Amino acid sequence: MDTEHLLDEITAHQQVERVLDGYFAAAKERAERISPSYLSLWEALEKSTAGGKRLRPRIVMTAYTHLGGRDIAAAARVGAAFELLHTALIVHDDVIDLDFVRRGQDNVPGVYRRRAEASGEAPETARHRGLSVGIIAGDLALSGAFRMLDSVTTDPFTRDTLAGILDDAVFASAAGELIDVDFSFEPGAPPVGDILDMERLKTAVYSFEAPLRAGAVLAGAGPEAVAALGRFGRDTGIAYQVVDDLLGVFGNESATGKSSMGDLREGKRTVLIAYAAQSPFWAELSGIIGRPDMDTADADRARKILVDCGARDYAQNLAADYAASARSHLDCAELPAGLAAMLDAVVSSSVNRGR
């Protein structure tokens, strides 16, 4: 990367942080005028956004700066909008999955469950309180994402296009989440292709496709460049999620920040499980996963089955195939060489996590 773009990215990251700090400062000031408990909720929501990699703002900024964009302040607000969307979706996802921990710490539902327990509430009541507040917090972050995007200084046509991209991302993610929930009620495992479709809708669109397209649109890029970046984002996002599925079972907990038993205990329908379901090993594996009382020995046995039936190798190869497909979309005359090089690095970091 040349020095100019390196400085651009450093400045962009700092600007996104300033935008988010300003957003939460203003929200907390408003909340304090209503009640201390509402201020406390905003403080918990703000804390839940800290410590993340800011992947989506970085993607927005990478596309924007390498396509000639120079209004870093405007781009930072677009990036912040996608970070708020990410916050909303993970808070709601934790509610759906009944998770109370994220990145090794209490998430928003976890904070409020613990507070309720500390005040003497029964475990089930405390759990309900935590999940209820999680829904409220996610709603606030989602509303904030659209308000943030509406504050971007640009022409009306570009603002409308950006709003459409963000709306499409929310619409797709909700569909993917619904499909994922439906999968959990099915006795068997869906085909691999259905899993990949779900993962694209749930994760790839809002994490890669939409931020890349938004950065390009804000920079004034042409339709061919925007479309190529969308295709690149789609395949990168699918590769990213397949790797996430692998890390959810085989990852090092200290590195991933999540339990390596959670997906197995939940019986989460992933590419690994879909592949194993077509093998002779499924009869045994299906009796192990999806049990709340799963212990370490059960999890170790499930992992061995996933290795022996070829599911782990299959998922690793599938991620590599999607990464290669993503790179093929960078061969576009409308994409500058510097941007292609940066996005090639994004693919590599997406598929090499945990190694």
Describe this structure in words.
This protein has 355 residues and is mostly helical. The chain has 2 domains: 1-153, Farnesyl Diphosphate Synthase (Orthogonal Bundle); 154-355, Orthogonal Bundle (Farnesyl Diphosphate Synthase). Helices cover 77% and strands 1% of the residues. The protein has 16 helices and 2 strands. It has helices at 3-34, 36-49, 55-66, 72-96, 108-118, 123-150, 156-184, 192-219, 223-250, 253-256, 262-266, 271-276, 282-285, 296-308, 311-328, 337-351, and strands at 101-102, 105-106. A hairpin with a 2-residue loop joins β1 (101-102) and β2. The radius of gyration is 21 Å and the shape is flat.
Gyration radius, rounded: 21 Å
Under the CATH scheme, which architecture of the largest domain would be assigned? Answer: Orthogonal Bundle
How many DSSP E strands?
Answer: 2
Give the amount of beta strand, in percent.
under 5%
What is the CATH level 1 assignment of the largest domain? Answer: Mainly Alpha
What's the helix count? 16
Q: What's the helix-strand series? A: HHHHEEHHHHHHHHHHHH
- According to CATH, what is the topology of the largest domain? Farnesyl Diphosphate Synthase
**CATH homologous superfamily (4th level) name of the largest domain:** Farnesyl Diphosphate Synthase
Strand order of the largest sheet: 1-2
- Biggest beta-sheet profile: 2 strands, antiparallel
Pfam families: polyprenyl_synt
Protein name: Polyprenyl synthetase family protein
Keywords: Magnesium, Metal-binding, Transferase
Family: Belongs to the FPP/GGPP synthase family.
